[in-house]
Structures are given as C-alpha cells and as structure tokens.
Amino acid sequence: MDIGLKNKRVVVTAGAQGIGLAITTAFVEAGALVHICDVSDDFLASARKQFPADRVSISRTDVANEQEVDAMFADLKQQWGGLDVLVNNAGIAGPTAKVEDTDLAAWDQTIAVNLTGPFLCTRRAVPLLKSAGGGAIVNISSAAGRLGFPLRTPYSASKFGVIGLTESWAMELGPDKIRVNAILPGIVAGERQERVIAAKAASYGIEHEAMRERLLSKVSMRQMVTAQDIANQIIFICSPAGAAISGQSLSVCGNVEHLG
Fold first, then answer.
1. Could you tell me the mean pLDDT of each successive run of 10 residues in the chain, 260 residues long?
2. N or C: which end of the chain has fewer CB within 10 A?
3. In Å, how far are 7, 104, 154, 176 from 117, measured between CA atoms?
4. Which helix (H) or strand (E) is 36 found in, with range?
5. In b/e form, how buried is each residue of 51-87, taking b as 16+ CB within 10 angstroms?
6. What is the domain partition of the chain in residue ranges?
7. Residues carrying an active site annotation
C-alpha cells in the first residue's frame, strides 16, 4: 500500500542497528530512499548486505562530531540530492551510577551523543528541508524524558533536553512547513535493554530477572515495546496521515508510570 512516502529522502542516524534498523527497514518498505549512518563498521557492513544500494546509502558517522556530520550530509546530497525526513535516532545509554559516583567524561559523552548530536544533524538538515518545501523531523527521546530516572541522571537529562529541542524547533520551523515531533519509547525489548537491566540489577544488588519484573511492574501494560512499535509510529507521523502533527512528544511505551 502506498502511504505517501515513496521516493521521500530520509536520514536515519544510527540506522544500522536496533531501533534504527527497524526504522530504516520500515521506510524502505514504504518506498523511501534512506541514508543511514552509524559508528559500527560491522553493523554498516551488515546493512550494505541487507538493503539494495539504490534504496539505502551509508556513511560512517559519529553524530557528536561536527566534521563527520558535515561529511554525512555532503554524502546525502550527492546520493539523493536533498532531504524530506530526518530521524534523530542515535543515542547511548550512558552510565548507571549515583550522582556522586558519575564520571564527568561519561556525563559529557552522553550529552554529546544524545543532545548535541540531534542539534548538529538538524542544523545541517534544515536548509535541505526548506529547499524541499517542508518535511519532518523526528527526535527520539524516552520515557526518561518525562520522568525522573534514578541512577541514570545523564541519560534522563539528555532526553528531557531532546523534548526542549523538539518543542522549540516545532515553533521555529512551523512557518517553513517543517514538522518536528519526539517519540518517547519506554522499555524496548532487545540486547541494549538487557544490558541496562543488568547494570541496574548490579547497582541495586538484585537478580537480573527481579530487576526486569520491577521495571515492568511500573508499566501499565506490563510488557516491553518493540523496535517495530517505534518504527510504526514514526512512519505514521512522517506520512501525509500525520501532516497536522507537530510539536508533540508521543509516548510509545505501554504507559510507563514510573522509572526506578
């Protein structure tokens, strides 16, 4: 079914793994032309095998590095000639520690990837979106962007910041017909989430499964969401069906009531 994304030009940061890979796949299946970046050579090599070169182009990019972001957008312009959708998906979990035990370098890295990264990418994307006559930006925040998250201060602070970026850019760019929204995933099933659970279990001195049950007890639906759930929502808000949606923080989380 044609949902209005055929041949739309899309950038997905960290698009070769996890949630980003699900987002990339969903856009390709919708007929879009996708440019992805990632910091992992292995994941990029896998993506090259998975997707046809006439639908997906690739850059190795650290979104916290200004020069690498500039090079990625140069690659994008050469490959697809412009841009219609930017998905700022790249992010890291950051440290799990009490505030007094949090290392400054770990704080700086988390803010650099999770907050400066979307800024650097959006700064380069906006002129292309304006040239296209408008478009959509989707920022990946988190349930931790609306709820406090003990032992995960750098991550939570960065994701609160992403919502600030989203609301500010939606107001600034709305007159140019550029819509800006944030997606707030909850507990997303996958290998990365298992690492987070393991780290929190160690911090609290409890078993891995007990930590899992503790986290899910604070989710109304008592279940994790999937990367596909996140991708589905992004496809909707970037399609013509989502044409009136901007400035919103949309939770895809089964209703996370509390984090901790």
1. 92 97 98 98 96 97 98 97 98 94 97 98 98 98 95 96 98 98 94 85 90 92 96 98 97 92
2. N
3. 26, 18, 15, 22
4. strand 33-38
5. beeeebbbbebbbbbeebbeebbebbeeebeebbbbb
6. 9-188+226-252, 189-224
7. 155
